Amino acid sequence: MKETLTLSTATSENITNDLGAVSFKCPSCGKVDIVRSSSERKNAVRYICPACGFTGPN
Ligand SMILES: [Zn+2]
Predict the structure, then answer these.
(1) Fewest CB atoms within 10 A around its CB: which of 2, 5, 34, 51?
(2) Which pTM value belongs to this model?
(3) Which residues, in sequence order, are bridge partners of residue 22?
């Protein structure tokens, strides 16, 4: 079994066991998976796409 470690894009927080976390393709370039933890969603923490510099959560 392959063990994958999932880190938040914005804070590098380990969200592997965070059931409220989400991941989605960058809405601007679609090249990068953006990962957000449940607490970041609740607090509207901004992320920056490492590929194109797009900032969300919008
Ligand atoms: Zn992007």
Answers:
(1) 2
(2) 0.80
(3) 36
